Amino acid sequence: MKKRISILGATGSIGTQTIDILSSIDAEVVALTTNRNIELLEAQARALKPKVCAACDEAAAKQLKIALADTDIQVQSGMDGLIAAATHPDCDTVVTAVVGMVGLLPTLAAIRAGKDIALANKETLVCAGQLVMDSAAKYGVKILPVDSEHSAIFQCVQGAQGNALDRIILTASGGPFFGKSADELKTVTREQALQHPNWSMGAKITTDSATMMNKGLELIEAMWLYGLPEDQIDIVVHRESIIHSLIEFADGAVLAQLGLPDMRLPIQYALTYPERLPCKVPRLSLAEIGRLTFFAPDDAAFPAMRLARRAAREKGNLGAVMNGANEAAVGLFLQDALPFWQIPELVAFAMDEVPMQENPTLDDILESDRAARAAVNHWKMR
């Protein structure tokens, strides 16, 4: 059956790779969104002919409306535009490929509208995992993971035959600074942080990989997706990024999903599940790879993982606080307004500064995000 999809964040890394695999599946694009990359979105819109396009940035949306004035495509703006794209009546699946907290409201709106979610926006579950999973259960929608690690777990679970998972093992590349000490990280630059050894990603996610916060976010995401406490989720550094994650059963048996580091396979599987179709990705040759290596993560040099485990244990609004603070701190770093090593320090400050709430509402989560960003900016101005 033809899949009708909306792509939130169509001009980013996941969005463009989603569009790249469309020729391999039976799909129609209903809506596309961007933040402000109008030139690329216009090209995508003319090729795919969606019913709706939206730009989060208001000024960019005005430019887009002019650019697409000769078409029948409806152009919207801001959060309302994202939500309109996510809830369009002709859409059945939403690819949430935006980065950051901005993905939460349109994802919740899509769930309430009965849309399945191909989830690439990990911050949605980090900030509001309980609300999102409860809402998905209430409205009977599927949340299909797109992240390579969570897709790997999802694929392995297909072989579980109903047996409960005893442990999840998330693999991490280690980022560009693997092996560096805390002291050595005090001199690294933005340019160095953005040189990921295996994956091509946006600046924010690449920075999160460099601090190892990305793996902390994925730990929390896995906790909500698969219903395991954080102490049953391990992290191992696997430099080759060939094993994308593993699951373990009560008898000690371990299943893993392997493949070359290419996001097109997990994107396609989320859109074709449970069917598997030919995919454009190169095939894995273990003989060519030669060897696979594994290391324990260094929590002393990369304290972000400890912060994420705290947020996972304490739950409540702490994930939203941690994520909001991290987004703000990474933003400062990418503007050369903060040294790399201080990113987790600011996140820890905000997690101690913003009051804990055990059962937050959506409004509480949004306020926690705002307060965390304010705490980071206040700390920076001291």
Explain how this protein is built.
The structure is a single chain. This protein has a seven-stranded parallel beta sheet with strand order 4-3-2-1-5-6-7, with helices on both faces. A four-stranded mixed beta sheet has the order 9-8-10-11, covered by helices on one side. The protein is built from 16 helices and eleven strands. With 382 residues, it is α/β, with parallel strands linked by helices. The protein has helices spanning 13-20, 38-48, 58-67, 78-86, 104-112, 123-139, 148-157, 190-193, 203-211, 213-226, 264-272, 286-289, 304-314, 318-334, 343-353, 362-381; strands spanning 3-8, 27-34, 52-55, 74-77, 93-96, 116-119, 143-145, 167-172, 233-237, 243-248, 254-258. Helix 6 (123-139) links the parallel strand 6 (116-119) and strand 7 (143-145).
Strand content: 5-15%
Uncertain parts: none
Structural class: alpha/beta
- Helicity range of the residues? 40-55%
Count up the helices.
16
The SSE string, one letter per element, is EHEHEHEHEHEHEHEHHHEEEHHHHHH
Largest sheet: 7 strands, parallel
Distance between the termini: 58 Å
Instruction: Report the count of strand segments.
Output: 11
Strand order of the largest sheet: 4-3-2-1-5-6-7
- Cα gyration radius (Å): 20 Å
Overall geometry? globular
State mean pLDDT (0 to 100 scale): 96
